[in-house]
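request received
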Amino acid sequence: MHQTHKKILLGITGGIAAYKTAELVRLLIKSGIEVQVVMTQAACQFITPVTMQALSGKPVYMDMWDNSIPNGMPHIELSRAADAIIVAPASADFLAKLVHGRADDLLSTLCLARDCPLVVAPAMNKQMWEAAATQRNIKQLRQDNVTILGPDSGEQACGEVGLGRMLETEALAILVKGFLTPKLLADKKILVTAGATIEKIDPVRGITNFSSGKMGYAIAQVAADMGAKVTLVSGVSPLDQPYGVKIVATESAEAMYQAVMTNIQQQDIFISVAAVADYSVESPSNEKIKKGESSLTLKLKRNKDILADVASLPNPPFCVGFAAESQDLIKNASQKRLSKKLPLLVANLVSESMGTDEATITLLDDTGTHALPRSDKITLAQEILTHLSHMLEK
Ligand code: CTP
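response:
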């Protein structure tokens, strides 16, 4: 069941768009993809291997005769490890080389020696793109099962306007990630809650918790990559918005409740990852509370349970709960799953999961418990959603 990270080999050829590839590397790594950069000599005229090495955290290869590769065959060694080769930017010259199966440098040799999919993001001046030779090459590459992303139209580095520039980095990152992820949740509508809630005491103070939102945001991102239409109702979280996800920002448990209920109709799946406050301040002060007495008592009232209410709707979506426990994990989590009538519950120990990049979790469903090895949250999100998609198939 354990999935490892996707690994891509990112080829950079000579084009001014190479500067955008630096950002692409950062975005891909951020979404849990391992990136090995290979550059042509021409690419090094536009961006330095040092930049790419710093961003990818791995040595950058340029040379066929690099003797730092253990078996002395970099073209075999590097392409064997890759789930896909992405060439961005792909120059007109490089596309022509691909068409002819040329192998006169490391990147073209890797492309020829690969047994994984090849994706190219062309980038060139509009005349070069429109040239009959380039169009012939693109047609041939499509026939050879090469995926072509872009190009985009707009202002070019040379000052002309037209088709030929590389797709914007964020769009490319989404397309590459989508390309790598099996569409296990194609067209499913999923609502995810994530992050911490904050209950106002007065205009400048509130009661919150230590949830970072990392698990919920990872679930939202991976679900979108798996083809789902995702709405993320987020409480407080410092994280960047996941790509391709509709976000609804909330703060209090009550605001989160309203946002969920407004959006719950027509959802196929509800995944409740948020750390929702069980209590809120009964009468928050409209004015800042001044210090006075030696002690201050706040009266709290119970909040509604969003997940339990969604699971009790007449036609509930498939509901997934999270249980963060500090002791008796499986016992408490099983009780929670049954009392909230959930087909699937993800249990974790607070000490091992909250606020961290990694977590240790156990899945609980009607068939029993499934402990997953400790992993980063993107990998866990992939495993949880893969498990869920198998449950939906039954
Ligand atoms: N949850 C919710 N609304 C609440 C409280 C919790 O939707 N008001 C959801 C959480 O998102 C999570 C699950 O319910 O999926 C957690 O269950 P819960 O029993 O509320 O956990 P705790 O709040 O930790 O409960 P307890 O304090 O009793 O352990």
